[in-house]
């Protein structure tokens, strides 16, 4: 599975310049390549991010999560989300599962990984708990 250069460049922009709040990626089955699906603007919320996940299609995503620690320090962590809803096609789930590790290696700087099959598995409470 190839990874388009745009995926790596947009991820670098999110990581270093904070140009985006999140990026969703999809696999183009015709070209066998991971491509950028959607870019979340810096002002977008976590709800905007979860709403961008399709109900019956798999996606990869990265989310730049800002939070305050118990010591009152502002921090940020980059989450990698593997979205594979139960209603998606079996072939699609297998394709995303088998390509995930290779794709993740292309994105240097991911700090936390989440796997979700429905929105409750990537709720804000879970994200906060994993960030601390």
Task: Give an overview of the whole structure.
This protein is α/β, with parallel strands linked by helices. It has a single domain (2-131), classed as Severin, CATH 3.40.20.10. The protein is built from 4 helices and 6 strands. It has helices at residues 5-17, 46-51, 90-106, 124-131; strands at residues 2-3, 22-28, 33-40, 59-68, 74-83, 112-116. The model has no long low-confidence stretch (mean pLDDT 96). Residues 1-132 form the ADF-H domain. One of its GO terms (molecular function) is actin binding. Actin-depolymerizing protein. Severs actin filaments (F-actin) and binds to actin monomers.
Mean pLDDT, rounded to whole units?
96
Series of H and E elements: EHEEHEEHEH
Query: CATH topology, which one?
Result: Severin
CATH architecture classification: 3-Layer(aba) Sandwich
CATH superfamily: Severin
What topology, given as strand order, has the largest sheet?
1-3-2-4-5-6
CATH class: Alpha Beta
Total domains, how many?
1
How many strand units? 6
Shape: globular
Key traits:
132 residues, alpha/beta, Severin, six-stranded mixed beta sheet, 32% strand, globular
């Amino acid at each position: 599975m190839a990874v388009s250069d745009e995926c790596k460049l947009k991820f670098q922009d999110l990581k270093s310049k904070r140009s985006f709040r999140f990026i969703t990626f999809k696999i183009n089955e015709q070209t066998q390549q991971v491509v950028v699906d959607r870019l979340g603007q810096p002002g977008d919320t976590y709800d905007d991010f979860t709403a961008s996940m399709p109900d019956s299609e798999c996606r990869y995503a990265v989310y730049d999560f800002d939070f305050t620690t118990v010591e009152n320090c502002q921090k940020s962590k980059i989450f990698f989300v593997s979205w594979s809803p139960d209603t998606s096609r079996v072939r699609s789930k297998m394709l995303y599962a088998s390509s995930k590790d290779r794709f993740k290696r292309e994105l240097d700087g991911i700090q936390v990984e989440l796997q979700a099959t429905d929105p409750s598995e990537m709720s804000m409470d879970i994200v906060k708990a994993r960030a601390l």
